[in-house]
Amino acid sequence: MKTFPNPAGGGVTRSPRSWLFAPGHNEKLLAQVFEAGADVVLLDLEDAVPPDIKDRAREMVAGVAATRQCWVRVNRARSEFCERDLEALAGSVLGFRIPKVDSADDVAWVADRAPGVPLDCTIESARGVLAAFDIASAPACALLSYGGLDLAADLGIPGGEQETLYARSYLIIAARSAGKPQPSDGVHPLLDDDDGLRREAEAAKRLGFFGKSAIHPRQVPIIHQVFASTPEELEWARQVLWAFEQSGGAATKTASGEFVDSPVAKRARQILGL
């Protein structure tokens, strides 16, 4: 089971399948987002909030965070807006999502102003992709997330599964090499495209992502379905572990004839959350 630090509980918590955004300046959505069933509520002070009302949004989010468990996406590291965000919220949130992280120095800058708070570092640029291992290795980085829309804009491309395959795969490798949980995938921007969301989430899962950000509550159930183990996967894992245990840890095969050794058993344990 993948884990990352939880300052509120003093221990660890399961990596979320879903991160549901809510704009920090929208009073109605700030109230409704907690009832949508997402694993993590992510209140946004960055892209969803116009510059002229960021101070007001920060006040509203601080009021919510004082009574409800949430993460907050702050403004870009090293900016005055971000400094104000951290000063107002560091003592009341479960963690911060840092947007557009380009270097480990960005992580350190935030960590110096919010010591002990887990940071979800979003990779959204070419520079961020190349520095992903250093970013993931930063002590304050709890996990990585992928920002596909901004990365596509930085690269001057429309996006797409094949077009961004290198960047997305590299995030998986960087996180694993740094001993951090599987990264979470970015948003699917088409609200009424349930089939497209499912295909995108399934492709992300195959690559090694775990979890996905959502911009509307209707996306949450689909994300949960994709990133949950299926009954077939669970049954396969139980059969593998039974055969492996019966063999005393030696290479063997299941009743259906599938070869089983230590890596296969390890994958089965991951599926069962052992």
Overview of the molecule:
By secondary structure, the chain is an alpha/beta fold. It folds into 2 domains: 225 residues, Phosphoenolpyruvate-binding domains (TIM Barrel), CATH 3.20.20; 42 residues, no CATH class. It is 43% helix and 16% strand. The protein is built from 12 helices and 11 strands. Strands 8-7-6-5-4-3-9 form a 7-stranded parallel β-sheet. A hairpin with a 5-residue loop joins strand 10 and strand 11. Helix 2 packs parallel to helix 3 and helix 11 packs across helix 12. The N terminus is likely disordered.
Task: Tag the structure with descriptive keywords.
274 residues; alpha/beta; TIM Barrel; 2 domains; seven-stranded parallel beta sheet; 11 strands; globular; disordered N terminus
How is the topology of this model organized?
Elements: E1 3-6, E2 11-14, E3 18-23, H1 27-32, E4 40-44, H2 54-65, E5 71-73, H3 80-89, E6 95-98, H4 104-113, E7 119-123, H5 126-130, H6 132-137, E8 141-146, H7 148-155, H8 165-177, H9 194-207, E9 212-214, H10 220-227, H11 231-246, E10 252-253, E11 259-260, H12 262-272
Parallel strand pairs: 3-4, 3-9, 4-5, 5-6, 6-7, 7-8
Antiparallel strand pairs: 1-2, 10-11
CATH superfamily of the largest domain: Phosphoenolpyruvate-binding domains
Strand line-up of the largest beta sheet: 8-7-6-5-4-3-9
What structural category characterises the helix and strand content?
A: alpha/beta
What count of domains describes the coordinates? 2
Low-confidence stretches: 1-13
Q: What is the share of helical residues?
A: 40-55%
Head-to-tail CA distance between termini: 6 Å
DSSP, total strands: 11
The ordered H/E elements are: EEEHEHEHEHEHHEHHHEHHEEH
Using only C-alpha atoms, the radius of gyration works out to 20 Å
Q: Which CATH class of the largest domain is shown?
A: Alpha Beta
On the 0 to 100 scale, the average pLDDT is 91
